[in-house]
Amino acid sequence: MNENLIEKLFSLKGRVALVSGASRGIGAAIATGLAGAGATVVGCGRSASASEKAGFAYRPCDVTDSTGFRMLCDGLIQEHGRIDVYVHAAGITLPDADSSAREENFDRTIEVNLSAAYRSSLAVAETMRHQKRGSIIHVTSIGSVLGFPGNPAYVASKGGLRMLTKALALDLGPKGIRVNSLAPGYVRTAMTEKSFQDPERNRERAARTMLGRWGEPGDLVGAAIFLASDASAYVTGQDLFVDGGWTAKGL
Ligand SMILES: NC(=O)c1ccc[n+]([C@@H]2O[C@H](COP(=O)([O-])OP(=O)(O)OC[C@H]3O[C@@H](n4cnc5c(N)ncnc54)[C@H](OP(=O)(O)O)[C@@H]3O)[C@@H](O)[C@H]2O)c1
Predict the structure, then answer these.
(1) Tens of pLDDT, residues 102-154
(2) CA distances from 46 to 68, 101, 184, 224 (A)
């Protein structure tokens, strides 16, 4: 193995990364992974502190609060001088069956999963354009390309986020900023714990993959490092599915 080549392609040494939705689950795993690849990482979420945190600093911030998010970015620039990578992993799911407030839930889901991704991406792009380099990664879902029952808000938000990725990739490409989506399949986190604990749903979801199992948050790390690093220097506007083969499977 040529270690220099691996270092040149995948190392994030000297890079500064911001990860939203990093208080737990997939965002926390990605933040830890980017730090492991050498980046200085700051993660955020609404929680006062992160329940899973290793190798990165954590700042409370609600991504739907544009002013608060910009202040977070300003703080990063003051402290570290730059932002090279932004991962929008913040997300919520509010299934219709769990509530009678469907319309409010729809709006709230779009606000966190899609509108906040747009505003926060523009905020970091403002800094990245001066650097003439940057990588933005939107965490979408297999629901960005497939219909799932009982949760139109989530599916619409992730489908919208997938297309926002392509539109921003086009607009920001000339500034040297790449924008890609990272689409997990079913991954065991707080968001999916109810389905994971239900034996029938658990089996059904594992059987829909080609690998015959659920994902773990750590399964997303390699793909996130790839999209954040120079290994993907000519990759933009793309969707990278990390779903055990779910979206590629026929029968
Ligand atoms: N688990 C899966 O199977 C799966 C599959 C496909 C896609 N995804 C996506 O992966 C991402 C991470 O989900 P997860 O499975 O890790 O779920 P999770 O454990 O519920 O984590 C969600 C994260 O988003 C943060 N968050 C929610 N609203 C926020 C807001 N307004 N401002 C800032 N942070 C906010 C949460 O932090 P606070 O509560 O502290 O704010 C938490 O850190 C989400 O975008 C989700 O849609 C998950």
Answers:
(1) 999 999 999 999 999 999 999 999 999 999 999 999 999 999 999 999 999 99
(2) 11, 22, 22, 22
Q: What is the pTM of this model?
A: 0.98
Mean pLDDT of the chain: 97
Structural contact between residues 50 and 58, judged by C-beta atoms closer than 8 angstroms: yes
Looking from the CA of residue 28, the nearest atom of ligand 1 is: 43
Residues with catalytic annotation?
154
Q: Which residue has the tokens 């059987």?
A: 207
Distance CA 141, CA 244 (A): 12
State the fold for domain 12-189+217-242.
Rossmann fold (3.40.50)
Q: How big is the CA angle at 131 (ends 126 and 133), to the nearest 5 degrees?
A: 95
Q: Nearest Cα to 92, choosing from 137, 130, 143?
A: 143
Tokens of 168: 């921003």
Q: How far does CA 23 lie from the centroid of its chain?
A: 13
**Domain positions in the chain:** 12-189+217-242
Ligand 1, pocket-test mutation among 18, 24, 109, most atoms within 8 A of CB: 24
pLDDT 10s digits, 77-95:
999 999 999 999 999 999 9
Work out which ligand 1 atom sits closest to the CA atom of 217: 16
